[in-house]
Each structure stands twice: as structure tokens, then as C-alpha cells.
Design goal:
The protein is 22% helix and 23% strand. It is α+β, with helices and mostly antiparallel strands. It has 2 domains: 18-76, DNA polymerase, domain 1, CATH 1.10.150; 81-138. The strands form 2 sheets. Strands 3-4-5-6 form a 4-stranded antiparallel sheet, with no helix packed on it. It has a two-stranded parallel sheet with strand order 1-2. A hairpin with a 5-residue loop joins strand 3 and strand 4 (93-98). Helix 1 (25-34) packs across helix 2. It starts with 17 loop residues before the first strand and ends in a 19-residue tail after the last strand. Its cofactor is [4Fe-4S] cluster.
């Protein structure tokens, strides 16, 4: 069974809109077909999401207004907010991001002689315990 990427508002019992970022290209094409829209629009939407970094569906100016309204009715544009960005003398960059629900996660870019590595917290309260990361503190 496919897991639906929506949340339920505990206060009202209503189902929140799904994040458009949870859809893969083919899933978005299928959704557009179900809505009576042309599937090629999915590639335009992905361009706005991943290349142009649109902040709202209204920004997607090459989409028809009724489609933008439909997207806004069914989906949200969930993005991370940067709370803190710190750069150390060795070039390591730490980011503290806030999720839509107000909880924070951290990402660290570490620069090495052989290349770069990135630690991306994939859950709040990560238990790995890296000394450079604040995500462990939430445990």
C-alpha cells in the first residue's frame, strides 16, 4: 500500500494538503491526467520547482491560471527555512533548517583533500551522535 504524504490537523480533523515535492515526475503526470490536464505540464512544473525554485504556484507564469489554482487547491510548496548558517575556518559549513512543523534539522558540508562529504539529517533527533551536529541534542 502506498503511503500518502499528507498530515491531519489534530485540532480540526481535516487532512492537510500534500507537498508537491513528494511526487515523482510520473506521479505528477498521472495526477495531471486525472485532472484532465496535459501530462507535459509536469515537466514545466518540475522546472519551476527544481530549477527556478518557485515560491508559489502563482509564480509559475507559463501554466494556465486554472491549473495554478488547481495545484494550489491540492498541494503545498513545502520548503526548508534556513535558521543558521555557520562556516568554520576549515571550510565546513553547517546549516540549521526549520521544517514546516517548526522542528529543526541540521546539514553539514565537510570539505576534505579528497573531496566533499555531506551529512544530511533525515530525521529529527538523529541518534548517531556526531559531535559537530546539533540534531543529536533533540534526542
Amino acid at each position: 500500500m502506498e503511503q500518502e504524504n499528507t498530515t491531519r490537523n489534530e485540532a480540526t480533523g481535516e487532512t492537510a494538503k500534500k507537498s508537491i515535492y513528494s511526487l515523482q515526475l510520473e506521479e505528477l503526470k498521472d495526477w495531471l491526467r486525472e485532472q484532465g490536464e496535459k501530462p507535459f505540464r509536469a515537466e514545466q512544473i518540475f522546472d519551476w520547482l527544481y530549477k527556478k525554485r518557485a515560491a508559489s504556484f502563482e509564480d509559475m507564469s507559463n501554466l494556465p491560471k486554472p491549473l495554478r489554482d488547481k495545484l494550489d487547491e491540492h498541494f503545498v510548496l513545502t520548503t526548508l527555512s534556513t535558521i543558521i548558517q555557520q562556516t568554520s575556518s576549515d571550510g565546513t559549513i553547517k546549516f540549521l533548517f526549520e521544517l514546516q512543523d517548526g522542528v529543526s534539522i541540521e546539514t553539514v558540508l565537510m570539505r576534505h583533500e579528497y573531496g566533499n562529504s555531506v551529512c544530511v539529517t533525515t530525521q529529527v533527533g538523529c541518534r548517531i551522535g556526531c559531535t559537530f551536529c546539533a540534531s543529536t541534542l533533540a534526542v
